[in-house]
Amino acid sequence: MTASLKIQGLGAGYGGFNVLRSIDLEVGSGLTVILGPNGAGKTTLLKALAGLIPRTGTVLLDDTLLPVRQSGVAVRRGMALVAEGRQLFPQMTVTENLELGGWLSTKAQRAERLRQALADFPRLAERAQQLAGTMSGGEQQMVAVARAMMSAPRLLMLDEPSLGLAPRMVDELLGIARRIADAGTTVLLVEQNVKKALAVADRAHVLERGALVAGGPAAEIAQSDIVRHAYLGVA
Ligand code: ATP
Fold it and tell me: Domain ABC transporter, which positions (predicted)?
């Protein structure tokens, strides 16, 4: 079930403006976090991988080349992205939002995955018929993650899932990401909560101005000068 991602010479940007410059990155099983300041290109990286914006270079998912700019293909191959801002349908119930995540699956698969999602997210099971737009920010983020899991991805990408959430909710969401990784889905996480993200991640990479400047086991990156000084505020 777990996926490996090999990224070679990846470039991406907007309207001729290059944000990412020749990214080489391998993402194996477990939980990998991408850290970096605002505007470094973290969201751009996830969008480029998901095929939502044009890119150059190669992306291999389990050694199979992923075509550029076809997000449907990426989903069929087992990739799912939870974008920043969640993008739920606020006037639809939790269940209806989840069912949309299974758009490529059969009715029977969808029913089974919905049952599994509600078992994995008891807080959502309690609110299955509630309109998504009336839920708290953290609950909405849970719906977005559970919806992505409805496509049974082998690689789940999460773009700042804890943005704007209270500390307890941040812990809960990072715990969910960890559990998903432990259950066998490869997780690629973009996160601003550097300390908390490094505590749950297996590996970490630092992106600055469109280039990777450090990478390795999360515990080592947490001790590195670059992260201690620039991100953890250690003098
Ligand atoms: P943040 O943590 O603030 O979300 P980020 O590391 O995710 O930052 P990106 O959102 O990838 O950074 O943005 C990288 C650069 O690309 C920024 O300079 C940003 O202004 C630019 N950019 C992002 N989206 C677009 C867009 N749709 N059109 C043009 N430029 C964009």
Answer: 5-234
**Residues 6 or more apart from 216 whose CB is under 8 A from it?**
203, 204, 224
In this structure, of 45-54, 67-76, 137-146, the range with the lowest mean pLDDT score is 67-76
pLDDT tens for 11-34 read: 999 988 899 999 999 999 999 999
Give the integer Cα–Cα distance in Å for 74 and 107.
21
pLDDT in tens, 34-60: 999 999 999 999 999 988 888 999 999
- Cα-trace Rg, the chain: 17
Q: Classify strands 79-82 and 186-190 as parallel, antiparallel or unpaired.
A: unpaired
**Backbone phi, psi, residue 181, to 5°:** -65, -40
Closest CA to 135 of 165, 101, 176, 177: 165
9 lines ligand 1 (CB under 6 A): no
Mutation choice for ligand 1 from 10, 14, 47, 192, CB with most ligand atoms inside 8 A: 14
Distance in angstroms (rounded) separating the CA atoms of residues 52 and 93: 26
- pTM of the prediction? 0.93
Residue 141 has a pLDDT of 94
The whole-angstrom separation of Cα 173 and Cα 123 is: 12
Q: With a 6 A CB cut-off, is 44 part of the ligand 1 pocket? A: yes
Q: Is the CB of 36 under 6 A from ligand 1?
A: yes
What ipTM, to 2 d.p.? 0.92
